[in-house]
UniProtKB/TrEMBL annotation:
This is histidine kinase. It comes from Streptomyces prunicolor. The chain crosses the membrane at residues 21-45, 185-203. Its main location: membrane. Residues 537-556 are annotated as: Disordered. It is an enzyme of class 2 (transferase). InterPro entries: HATPase_C_sf (IPR036890), HATPase_dom (IPR003594), His_kinase_dom (IPR005467), PAS (IPR000014), PAS-like_dom_sf (IPR035965), PAS_fold (IPR013767), sCache_3 (IPR033463), Sensor-like_sf (IPR029151). Keywords: ATP-binding, Cell membrane, Kinase, Membrane, Nucleotide-binding, Phosphoprotein, Transferase, Transmembrane, Transmembrane helix, Two-component regulatory system. The keyword Transcription does not apply. Its EC number is 2.7.13.3. It is a multi-pass membrane protein. The lineage of its organism: Bacteria, Bacillati, Actinomycetota, Actinomycetes, Kitasatosporales. GO terms for molecular function: protein histidine kinase activity. Pfam families: HATPase_c, PAS, sCache_3_2, SPOB_a. CDD domains: HATPase_DpiB-CitA-like, PAS.
Length: 556
């Protein structure tokens, strides 16, 4: 026997379309409910009809037993086929349409029966209960077949039981009533089934529109592919519902935002707290490729609304790119400075050559000493006050760049920074961003000057950078620390508005602060406080200034 072809197997199974499958399932459920409801209704209906038949038989028996003539005839005459008891019983039977009305004496002998030959014989079922004075209603089987019966005692004027009356209602009539009720019940069930079929069709149409008529297997495959894609891509994905609650996070989003599964189902404000990242993801800040800072990470965010009122936001980590871009900017600045130095060096060499050719040797020596002394003084000034090599090297380099840009970079006399920094790289970021920001602010201004001050108070580091630029209006002094906000033209590699935000984030991460005020005499003054920035000293720090310490050592 050849195997069944795949196409035939599909035809014999459930249809592939979601609309058809849902409709068939809904119809099956509606039909099952209709059949179940019909059965549950018929079961008590049958019992109810049986109960009504037994009550009717008992009522007829009670009415018959209250006939004084029947009691008198039983006591005074023998049972006969044409006797008054038989005639009265038949009259009552015909009037009530009962199956039989049997009157018996105290011995259980029949005085009436639908079959005259049974008169004078004993009843086929036990008459013990009615002859004992009890009323009985039951469904039983006798000589006339199965019937609903009612039996009552027959009493004389003194209340003595002298016999009993048994009345039967034919059971076939009860069944006929039950059967006659079924068509009407089926009509109601058919109507309910039709309404259920219509509702199933409407639901199936809605499911068809929502699932775009895909098969369940296709939907399952799409879900599997989505899970693999979401957890495999190197971009963060955050899905939000119409209320702004997080309903999906992939692995990269958890890493970039620093949150876990506990954030699912919560609002962005609850999961992330206040800040630009929350505003961007929530759509309160609009645009494309929006920058946000989360911890030490620089994120590029895009948000796309969905048809159900929610949104999907993507996150890209641009921390390394921003760092490379800033390094590139610094490299360009150094290259420009080197070019300027090369040009200046050529001029100085030409001047020196001219002095030598003119045999002005003393002037040549003074000129060389002046040039070399300026650079040496700057380096010595920095290293004398700043003992951390990274910070010192940074400021020496910034001083060279500033000089070539026509800006005087001064190190405050109050500066004193020992070589005990816990996070020197973090302080390099802070100092570098503030000095670069100050150099940009004073560019093109007359008598441009930038002053940097780094000092310690116990284990706390305090950094002040002042400039003689135009300053920052009071209403913008908080905005300058906002991610993405800047008054400068963006560089070629990306966007501005990151440096000062990183400065504040680094300070706040260590429990410190970063603020900007107006400098004395005009310009801006940035103040950064970093608590617990230094390690515990092995010895108590000297109370004298660095210059005084050097003088004492030289005198020794």
């Amino acid at each position: 026997m050849s195997p069944t072809p795949p196409a035939r197997r599909r035809r014999l199974g459930l249809p592939r379309r979601v609309f058809s499958q849902v409709l068939l399932m809904q119809l099956a459920i509606a039909a099952g409910v209709a059949v179940l409801a019909t059965g549950l209704f018929l079961a008590p209906l049958s019992k109810q009809l049986d109960q009504e038949a037994m009550n009717r038989a008992l009522a007829i028996a009670q009415t018959t037993a209250q006939q004084p003539r029947i009691v008198k005839e039983i006591q005074n005459t023998p049972p006969t086929v044409d006797g008054p008891v038989q005639k009265e019983a038949e009259r009552i039977r015909k009037a009530t349409k009962a199956e039989y009305v049997v009157v018996m004496d105290w011995r259980g002998m029949r005085w009436s029966h639908t079959t005259p030959s049974e008169i004078g014989r004993f009843v086929s079922t036990s008459p013990g209960q009615p002859l004992a004075g009890q009323e009985v209603k039951e469904i039983d089987k006798g000589t006339l077949g199965r019937s609903a019966r009612g039996k009552v005692p027959l009493r004389d004027a003194d209340g003595t039981v002298v016999g009993a009356v048994s009345v039967g209602i034919k059971y076939d009539s009860v069944r006929a009533q039950l059967i006659s009720a079924i068509p009407g019940l089926l009509a109601y069930a058919g109507g309910a089934l039709a309404v259920g079929a219509l509702a199933a069709w409407l639901i199936s149409r809605r499911v068809q529109r929502q699932t775009r008529d895909l098969a369940f297997s296709d939907i399952s495959a799409l879900l599997s592919e989505r899970e693999a894609m979401l957890h495999g891509i190197r971009e963060g994905v955050v899905a939000l519902d119409r209320a702004g609650r997080i309903r999906l996070l992939n692995d990269e989003a958890r890493r970039l935002l620093g949150i876990g599964d506990e954030a699912v189902g919560r609002s962005l404000d609850e999961a992330l707290g206040e800040g630009r990242t929350t505003d961007v993801l929530a759509g309160r800040v609009t645009g494309t490729d929006l920058l946000a800072v989360r911890g030490q990470r620089v994120l590029v965010t895009n948000r796309m609304p969905t048809d159900d009122g929610g949104a999907v936001a993507t996150l890209r980590d641009r921390t390394e790119l921003e760092q490379l871009g800033r390094e590139l900017d610094s490299t360009h600045g150094l290259i420009d400075a080197l070019r300027a130095q090369d040009h200046e060096h050529a001029n100085r060499m030409h001047t020196l050559l001219g002095l030598l050719e003119l045999e002005m040797y003393d002037d040549a020596v003074d000129f060389v000493g002046e040039v070399v002394g300026d650079h040496r003084a700057t380096a010595e000034q920095v290293t004398e006050k700043i003992q951390d090599p990274l910070i010192a090297a940074l400021l020496v380099g910034k001083a060279t760049v500033a000089a070539e840009r026509g800006v005087a970079l001064w190190i405050s006399d109050r500066t004193w920074l020992p070589d005990r920094l816990i996070d020197p790289r973090g302080l390099v970021t802070v100092v570098g961003n503030l000095v670069d920001n100050a150099l940009d602010a004073v560019a093109g201004t007359p008598h441009a000057r930038v002053e940097a001050e780094l000092r310690t108070e116990g284990r706390t580091a305090v950094l002040r950078v002042r400039d003689t630029g135009p300053g920052i209006p009071e209403e913008q002094r908080e905005l300058v620390f906002t991610e993405g906000w800047s008054t400068k033209k963006p560089p070629a590699h990306g966007k501005r508005g990151i440096g000062l935000s990183l400065v504040r984030r680094l300070a706040e991460r260590q429990g410190g602060s970063a603020v900007v005020t107006e400098a004395f005499g005009g310009g801006a003054e940035f103040v950064v406080i970093l608590p617990e920035a230094l390690t515990e000293p092995d010895l108590e720090p000297a109370l004298t200034a660095p210059g005084e310490t050097a003088t004492e050592e030289e005198s020794r």
